[in-house]
């Protein structure tokens, strides 16, 4: 909880922060207290492991939520824009809304079995309803439905500049599909948020490796980029 100490510049600033705190508590599902659970990913199975909410895992981004908003991070991004009065920026919500691809393109052996994780299959209508419930669904929210290898090439033709790219593709394949098609659209001073930078598989961190490989192929010096764990 953000406290009014030290004081904000004015009551409007404080109200904005409190508004974002409410949205954040819904996105992270911490608003539900002990009724929330920590859901643990389990690949190659349709079942999930759950246990009472572990706040240390939630704060470190190492569990999945049980009761959170669908499309929560994109909803929070729109809430930030609304709070600061940015009314003209577009948000592209890109997802298959049907889970992850089968990982049969042989880009990385760690991409297998993600497609059996039914937890990640959320229809676009459900996500749109979540936006609408918080008054954040308007014509500036654009849904791009489909696997990234299908949606990113045509999307790149319609986007001129991006201020922020948030990647949450879990897999090596999904990560490079976005980077190769959209990274050159990122504005100078823009940000890439890798949601799955430290998401482990049996053999390492596929999303992290995808990003590092992309920089190598693009002849960019990775040490010039600062990686931070963002919740």
Automatic annotation (TrEMBL):
Pfam family, one: TylF
Residue ranges crossing the lipid bilayer per the database entry: none
Name recorded for this polypeptide: Macrocin O-methyltransferase
InterPro entries cross-referenced by the UniProt entry: SAM-dependent_MTases_sf, TylF_MeTrfase
Xref: PANTHER family: MACROCIN O-METHYLTRANSFERASE
Superkingdom assignment: Eukaryota
Lineage: Eukaryota, Sar, Stramenopiles, Ochrophyta, Bacillariophyta
